[in-house]
Specification:
single chain, alpha+beta, 5-stranded mixed β-sheet, 13 helices
Length: 905
């Protein structure tokens, strides 16, 4: 350790020492000048004591903490010579708060000399003064570097590097002078900047100022900087320099080809890629030849029998002139399907080079489904000619052999050389190939037979993989209709004895699309025999949620109550087997189709241990596939294939698919460990304000087909984050809005401009509400030529208000919108309903009865009654007890809560 050491006093410990540990003889002060330096975290620099016992600390001119007081016990550093003194501790017997510019504060230093266990004391005085005022200044060059093709953002921090606030005010605005070059232009809020006009700091912080390049080059502008006083003062001038360079790599050129289709390259694609990458015109291109297994490049291709001239890697191909780029074709190799790429190097007239890639997607052939029909308990023997045709459709080659995926044993069995269920050569194996040739050394495809399970009726789909004689593979499907035929494929679910299973509206929508090529509107169901079980319906509404029996005459809809999503099947007590439930679907073309729901009920269910998660507030939790795989392995001794979830109550939270929370989980849909849709992308988000334990049931299926049940337990705690979205003024009386503010911040609906204040208690203006509403629903900017006369182009809500006007959300009055006026609860309701309709989101029809619960329903204006009643029904707007307060102004906190409810519909 150096001879001159530093000790940092801890004043809780100092109080403890002085009160309890100091020996009696320490009361006699020796008054030695122990300290050499003294500093505080709020001071501009340390004070050199130079053998004295009084010090002056200087704080910045703008210091205003603690009502212009410095707490010397918090953040104080003391230095002393450790060769003379073994310890020194500072304490404040008469208080540690020093007023800036006020009387000095007394500080006692209790110390020990080296080699002496006795304690001594010295009294110091500390005074705190304010530094002299220094005016802000601005000078130097702000340099921005950018590469094509993206825009260069110029933010508050860029100008802040040249701005020195000193003890004065922050940067308030800048004014730019000069002219745009030929290779780009300055844009403010998306429109070309008018030189000489003021750019406020809020626009700079919001990313409103950008340079949009069209080529490469360097341009400079003169910058005048102004402070943020009520009457802005010029504090200095500098230069803004923007350097735009070309990229050494161009964006990919895409090409999609059908099966066996050749594709011509387009010179315009390469010219555009060159201009975006370098800002210069294209001179020529050379190619790196692709792998011959995927295809080849040919010049002047005509047909598969007249391919033209093979492209050479050393040949230059020109956008205009010979040999021409547009004469070059990519020709896929016979039977090839999938993705491939062709690399190239481009050159400009100035001999600048860049690299690029043509990404090519080649579709596989789409063989028609091989279809068979049979009666119940009647076999079907496959035909080699059916597979030969499918192979020619997919690969243009002859079939060599086929491997089958096995059907569910509940529907039937594939046999080889079948006579009867008691007389056959073998069961078909999924690992064996069955050949088109019939000889003694191979098993022939012509001897493969499907035998339905006794009593089974329905549609069976069997996947297969075909191989040509050159070992080119393709995939196909065999569809076998057993017994009565329905228009749609069967919808299948699995469950256990006495275990209810929920239906998924997605399954019915897919069935309708496959059967009719139209969208589903509703279905009616034939109630099953009580021998099998019962169909139940439960509303998703928290207010009237109760279980009722499904009626055969009731229509169950996709997008309104009663919904398909609310239907479930509960097996009869001790029932084991496959229950068949018939339904009729109705599409948006007014046509009907028929279908079946098959529910396989297994006995002797195994139950996995509960999977536990924790989350706080709106953070939610994303499921881990390893957790589910572990439980599956423990329960079945096999790895996990997929799970199906029962949905939690809407009052508890929602299951989403994908981390962006755009898609809700469908009940009963399979989420896989190793394929899409992926289990690892399932996320639970608690309902705003909910705390407690949420239990979600699921059905798992192992890789061996063994089914089991399990539960997920999620402990939801109140969020401890007192600064949701980085805002420091939301805690306390506005903590009820914290989850909503945090959620909107995560969704980029609200942004922290840097001051850390959300101002939740302030009333929202019409302009800022429309801005937040448009961000929530992701409306594109409207036409600037068709705006309101009182919404200037420089305003931060200009694009949003224009978008709202063009969509019919904001209508204004007399060509004016009055954006600075505060907005009422009933006006908010009208805006929200219009916006939801413009987004294609279904709005529930409200009625006068929805307003009856409120004593002040008579205060609702006629124009807002329908909108308010709808949003009350959808629980987006709620009153305070029996008071709705329709004409009351909406605070920013209330605005956040309503927008969060929209986003979590």
């Amino acid at each position: 350790m150096n001879a001159l050491g530093k000790r940092i006093g801890s004043f809780i410990l100092a109080a403890f020492f002085s009160a309890a540990l100091l020996p009696a003889h320490a009361a006699a002060a020796d008054n030695e000048a122990v300290l050499t330096k003294l500093n505080h975290r709020d001071a501009l620099s340390s004070a050199d004591l130079a053998g004295g016992t009084s010090a002056v600390l200087t704080v910045p001119y703008a210091y205003s903490k603690n009502e212009n007081k410095v707490d010397l016990s918090d953040g104080l550093d003391i230095s002393y010579d450790t060769t003379v003194y073994s310890s020194a501790v500072a304490s404040f017997a008469s208080g540690s708060m020093a007023s800036v510019g006020g009387d000095p504060v007394g500080m006692t230093v209790t110390y020990q000399r080296a080699g002496d266990e006795a304690f001594y004391k010295t009294l110091y005085t500390i005074r705190v003064l304010r530094a002299a005022y220094t005016a802000p200044s601005f000078s130097g060059t702000v340099e921005i570097n950018s590469k094509l093709p993206g825009s260069a953002a110029i933010g508050y921090g860029d100008f802040g590097k040249a701005y020195r606030a000193n003890d004065g005010t922050a940067l308030g605005s800048v004014v730019l002078r000069g002219s745009n070059p030929s290779f780009g232009a300055l844009l403010l809020s998306g429109s070309e900047y008018q030189f000489g006009s003021q750019i406020p700091a809020s626009s700079l912080s919001g990313g409103g100022l950008t340079f949009k390049p069209t080529g490469t080059g360097t341009v400079s502008y003169l910058v005048d900087a102004y402070d943020s006083q009520a009457t802005p003062a010029l504090v200095g001038s500098g230069t803004l320099t923007i350097n735009v360079k070309g990229s050494d790599k161009a964006s990919d050129i895409g090409m999609s080809l059908g099966h066996g289709q050749a594709g011509a390259l387009r010179a315009s694609d390469f010219s555009a890629a060159c201009m975006n990458a370098t800002g210069e015109a294209l001179s020529y291109v050379t190619f790196k030849l692709p792998d011959s297994k995927t295809g080849g490049l040919y010049s002047n291709y005509a047909s598969s029998s007249s391919k033209g001239t093979a492209v050479s890697a050393s040949t230059k191909y020109y956008p205009s002139g010979e040999p021409g780029l547009s004469s070059v074709f990519f020709v896929p190799a016979t039977g090839y399907a999938g993705a491939t790429s062709v690399s190239y190097t481009g050159y400009t007239a100035s001999n600048a080079s860049f690299s690029g890639t043509v990404q090519i997607s080649i579709e596989s052939g789409s063989p028609d489904t091989i279809e068979y029909k049979t009666k119940e308990d009647t076999k079907v023997t496959f035909s080699v000619s059916d597979f030969s045709k499918a192979c020619r459709d997919a690969t243009s080659q002859d079939i060599g052999c086929v491997k089958f995926s096995l059907p569910s044993s509940s529907s039937g069995q594939l046999y080889y050389n079948f006579t009867s269920v008691s007389n056959y050569e073998s069961k078909v194996s999924s690992s064996r190939k069955y050949y088109s040739k019939n000889d003694s050394d191979t098993q022939s495809l012509s001897k493969v037979t499907f035998m339905p399970e006794s009593g089974y009726s329905g549609t069976v789909k069997i996947s297969y993989t075909g191989y040509t004689s050159d070992n080119v593979s393709f995939s196909g499907t065999i569809k076998i209709t057993v017994g009565e035929e329905c228009d749609a494929d069967d919808i299948e679910y699995e469950t256990f004895k006495d275990t209810e299973v929920a239906f998924s509206d997605k399954d019915f929508k897919d069935a309708c699309e496959d059967a009719t090529r139209h969208d589903l509107i509703y279905v009616t169901l034939t109630t099953p025999s009580s021998t099998y079980g019962v169909l139940n319906y439960i509303s998703s509404s928290a207010k009237d949620a109760k279980k009722t029996s499904v009626s055969g005459s009731t229509k169950y809809y996709v997008d309104k109550a009663p919904t398909i999503q609310g239907i479930s099947f509960l097996p009869a007590t001790d029932y084991i087997g496959t229950a068949t439930i018939k339904y009729t679907g109705y599409n948006d073309d007014g046509k009907t189709f028929t279908g079946r729901i098959k529910v396989k009920v297994e006995g002797g269910s195994k139950e996995a241990d509960t999977i536990h998660y924790r989350c706080e507030g709106k953070d939610g939790v994303t499921f881990s596939e390893s957790d589910f795989n572990r439980e599956c392995d423990d329960t079945t001794d096999r790895s996990l294939d997929y799970v199906r979830f029962m949905l939690p109550a809407s009052t508890e939270g929602t299951l989403y698919y994908g981390y962006d929370r755009d898609t809700k989980i469908s009940a009963g849909e399979k989420y896989y460990r190793n394929s899409s849709p992926r289990l690892e992308k399932v996320t639970f988000i608690p309902q705003s304000g909910y705390t407690g334990t949420v239990t979600i049931s699921y059905i798992g299926c192992s890789s061996g087909g063994e089914v089991y049940t399990g539960k997920i337990s999620i402990s939801v705690k109140k969020a401890e984050n007192l600064t949701p979205g980085g805002f420091t003024d939301v805690a306390g009386q506005f903590s009820w809005a914290a989850d909503a503010i945090e959620y909107l911040s995560e969704c980029d609906v609200i942004t922290n401009t840097g001051d850390g204040l959300f101002k939740p208690g302030e009333y929202a203006t019409r302009g800022e509400f429309v801005l937040m509403l448009c961000r929530s629903l992701k409306f594109a900017p409207g036409s600037p030529s068709d705006g309101f006369s009182d919404v200037p182009q420089s305003s931060f809500y200009f694009d949003a208000v224009n978008a709202a006007k063009s969509l019919g959300v904001a209508k204004g009055s007399g060509g004016r919108f009055y954006p600075a006026n505060h907005i009422s609860r009933q006006d908010v309701a009208v805006f929200i309903v219009r916006a939801l309709s413009a987004s294609g989101i279904s709005v529930k029809d409200g009625s006068a009865s929805d307003l009856d619960a409120y004593n002040d329903k008579g205060n609702v204006s006629d124009y807002a009654k329908t909108a308010l009643s709808s949003l009350i029904k959808m629980e987006i707007i709620q009153g305070n007890g029996a008071i709705l307060n329709p004409a009351g102004m909406v605070t920013r906190a209330e605005m956040a809560v309503m927008l969060e409810r929209i986003l979590t519909l």
